[in-house]
Design a protein that fits this description.
Layout (H helix, E strand, L loop, with lengths): L2 H11 L2 H12 L5 H8 L3 H13 L3 E7 L7 E10 L4 H9 L4 E7 L4 E9 H11 L6 E14 L11 H5 L17 H12 L5 H8 L3 H13 L3 E7 L8 E9 L4 H8 L5 E7 L5 E7 L2 H14 L3 E15 L2 E2 L6
Antiparallel strand pairs: 1-6, 2-4, 2-5, 3-4, 3-10, 5-8, 7-9, 7-10, 8-9, 10-11
Keywords: DNA-binding, Transcription, Transcription regulation
Pfam families: HTH_24, HTH_AsnC-type
GO molecular function: sequence-specific DNA binding
Length: 332
């Protein structure tokens, strides 16, 4: 069975309750199942059982991730890698194995792989100039500095929950203002713990980090409230009914960048949008229910959003990493 066939089969197996639980976890990945049951007006036992199954089967993974822009000494960069024929998987796997990559996708086009990396300037320089060019099968590399994020995958609202339900979710405060912080050793330990399990209890965090439960609770809450730490519910959009993902690169006049970005994110199909430096000014991704819907979107975008001088679109073929998590159990 092909990967697409597996995803479509999984989508058929998920019912409305499963999708609504996933929708809630996308808004608040640390919510107790009892709270989810109360807001969604579902039986506690049903939500607990279904939620545990979704997590244990890897349909959804909850992870903690430091938000780009929160660390003054680190920055994010988009890298486009052109691969030699037949080397796509080798290159994408090598990129996904780097702890600094946030996502890694193979797309349509000229054997193209797109990734986002996050780290200090010196580390990014080493990755761009030495590490990536040294991966077998890499034939060309282009890089773009991320200037501003308008939406990341963690902030995507796929429309599974009603507006009334989303208003009841305490963590649903996107986009949050992000404060620049300095990560202390205890903060780093908490981040490492939550990166493995974003739903870890304060007791589990305290034991893993060698802190008191009160300290673990206080520090974790501070990181979350600062906007520096976000909890991502990592899920393949195909599982919840959006099997077509497309990355789009926009060229426009500098004066039009903000206007175009603000118009684009009004559409809930947009999962990710950032302004970037270089020969393109905006990079964004959409998730659609079908290629027919994607085609209609592409046909109308020039009319709906003024100022675009060029738009290049590439459909996602395979994801190797999402929100810092390799996709062995998410996309396979």
């Amino acid at each position: 069975m092909t990967e697409i066939a597996k995803l479509m089969a999984m989508n058929e197996e998920l019912d409305e309750i499963d999708r609504r639980i996933i929708g809630y976890l996308q808004a608040d990945g640390r919510a107790p199942f009892s709270t989810i049951a109360e807001v969604l007006h579902l039986p506690d036992r049903t939500v607990s059982r279904r939620g545990q199954e979704l997590l244990s089967q890897g349909v959804i993974q909850v992870t903690g991730l430091i938000e780009r822009g929160s660390l003054s000494r680190k920055e994010a960069m988009i890298v486009r890698v052109t691969c030699a024929p037949g080397a796509n998987t080798i290159v994408a796997t090598a990129l996904a194995n780097l702890p600094e990559t946030i996502f890694v996708y193979l797309t349509t086009g000229t054997n193209e792989c797109i990734t986002e990396i996050f780290g200090s300037a010196s580390l990014l320089s080493d990755i761009l100039l030495k590490l990536i060019p040294g991966i077998p099968g890499v034939s060309a590399v282009s890089s773009y500095s991320c200037l501003k994020y308008y939406r990341t995958a963690a902030q995507w609202n796929p429309g599974i929950l009603t507006d009334e339900e989303r208003e009841k979710i305490s963590m649903d405060r996107f986009p949050r203002p992000i404060k620049e912080i300095e990560l202390l050793p205890d903060d780093q330990l908490i981040l490492e713990t939550l990166s493995k399990n974003g739903r870890a209890t304060f007791d589990q965090i305290s034991r893993a980090c060698g802190l008191t439960e009160a300290t673990a609770r206080r520090k974790t809450t501070q990181l979350l409230e600062s906007g520096a730490l976000s909890i991502h519910a990592v899920v393949n959009p195909a599982v919840i009914g959006f099997p077509v993902e497309c990355w789009m690169w926009i060229k426009c006049a500098p004066r039009d960048v903000s206007m175009i970005a603000e118009k684009l994110i009004l559409d809930n199909h947009v999962r990710y949008l950032a302004t970037i430096s270089g020969d393109y000014q905006i990079l964004f991704e959409v998730a659609m229910t079908s290629k027919k819907i994607l085609n209609a979107y592409l046909e109308s975008i020039g009319t709906v959003v003024e100022g675009i001088t060029q738009l290049d679109s590439y459909i996602l073929i395979e994801a190797f990493k999402r929100s810092g998590r390799k996709t062995s159990s998410i996309d396979k």
